[in-house]
Amino acid sequence: MIPVKFDYLAPTSVEEALAALGEHGDEAKIMAGGQSLLPVLRMRLNAPEVVIDLGGIDSLRGIRDDGDAIVIGAMTTHHDVREHALVREHALLISKAVAEVADSQIRHRGTFGGALAHADPAGDLGAPALALGAQFVIAGPGGSRTVEADDFFVDLFETAIGEDEILTEVRIPKHTGWGAHYEKFVRVAHQWPIVAVAATVRGSIDEARVGLTNMGSTPLRARATEAALAGASATEDGVREASQLAAEGTNPPTDLNGASDYRKHLARVLTGRAVLKAAGA
Amino acid sequence: MKIELTVDGAAVSDDVEPRMLLVQYLREKLGKTGTVIGCDTSNCGACTVHLDGTSVKSCNVLAVQAGGRTVTTIEGLADTVEGDLHPVQESFRECHGLQCGFCTPGMIMQAVDLLKENPNPSEEEVRLGMEGNLCRCTGYHNIVKSVLHAAGGGAA
Ligand SMILES: Cc1cc2nc3c(=O)[nH]c(=O)nc-3n(C[C@H](O)[C@H](O)[C@H](O)COP(=O)(O)OP(=O)(O)OC[C@H]3O[C@@H](n4cnc5c(N)ncnc54)[C@H](O)[C@@H]3O)c2cc1C
Ligand code: FES
Ligand code: FES
Questions:
Q1: Which residues of B touch A (CB under 8 A)?
Q2: Selecting from 3.10.180.10, 3.40.50.450, 3.40.30.10, 3.30.390.50, what CATH number does the domain A179-278 have?
Q3: What is the pLDDT of residues A205-259, one digit of tens each?
Q4: Which residues form a coiled coil (chain B) (predicted)?
Q5: CB B68 within 8 A of CB B5
Q6: Which architecture does CATH list for A7-51?
Q7: What's CA A243's distance to the chain center, in Å?
Q8: Whose atoms come closest to the Cα of A33: which ligand?
């Protein structure tokens, strides 16, 4: 199907994009890679009057080293994030998870910021961003502000980004030398996970961070498992025991892909696998 | 909206509605029906073309987003090399990498991209690299064989 008619704006700076958003308000929709937005428009689930394409804003693309963090521009494609040496070195979990997003063609267009702003609870990048304590830099009419990962994901398809704001970059605190694994459970290739687990560990195991995908309306941290893993040894039995706590406090959906209880079971099993692989055990 | 771009080596310019998809533009405005539409959800990959040298699903890109860029479709692929056919096309013929042929343009365009990034893929890497392309006839074995054959022949 073809989208409803809209006007197309292609600003070349964040200021211009913000001005266009300010002018058109809730009639406008931001487009990043368009890989989620265009399907939505084509199915006519949404019909904005104006589409503001961020593709012409070069400053939003790229990855840089910023001391204790790496900074990923919102418009950096999944493909470029995956390939980047800084990401592999300091945020291995992101490299691993981004490789599991969709397929090659979609990774060439879809963007890091677009996927996080879209906030699909089944999206693969939310849980790793949460687990690594990412900070979201959001530009608005009054300047820029930074939102912690814990406050960024608000609900299903809803983030802390306001209607007049744009996500410009994501800061990922360096986790240099941490092992990582993203364990994604799907029934068919190149699809969203039924459940996935993002795990990253220091040593084996001094500290652990575990994020859960599709276990609620937002990405979640498996905090009880993290606490149980700290200082534990990376043996199969020890990790499996800590993983039994992975579904604590979650409220996963029941849908065609599985019941809530089944998802809780998956979370426990996948957490065990993810942590063991992250620890290189 | 006015767009100017290069498609299969030729400079083209047109006035298009912003909502026009790249695949529609190629098929309906330029008559390049070699690029096909197989789904409504951007899952199947039949519409795969190269935008500035990398593979994209042309049903999930607006024609206006291709303005100022270079598009290569299955129809222009052979012109990018010496000889009548691109080596990947040749391999699909050699290994019989098709049944009804509907998915083939997308399969070939994605295979070319895959081999550009990874000239010597394992079978597993071919299967993963082609995961965004579905074959309704499920002739995957020969498709994978074709890609591996092309790699062996130094294509890409
Ligand atoms: C067939 C298919 C399979 C897929 N499989 C997966 C999968 O397995 N896992 C997965 O995680 N994803 C998957 N995706 C989605 C893909 O990851 C998209 O790239 C991503 O969700 C959106 O990124 P985008 O850059 O294309 O954003 P767009 O589609 O352009 O935008 C998405 C939304 O975010 C808003 N937005 C975008 N950027 C900004 C910004 N900078 N500031 C404020 N708002 C913004 C837009 O207004 C829009 O509402 C799939 C998509 C398709 C079509
Ligand atoms: S027609 Fe584009 S992916 Fe199916
Ligand atoms: S050969 Fe028929 S769809 Fe692939």
A1: 1, 17-21, 24, 40-43, 45, 48, 51, 54-57, 59-62, 64-65, 110, 113-114, 129, 131-133
A2: 3.30.390.50
A3: 999 999 999 999 999 999 999 999 999 888 999 999 999 999 999 999 999 999 9
A4: none
A5: yes
A6: 2-Layer Sandwich (3.30)
A7: 22
A8: 1
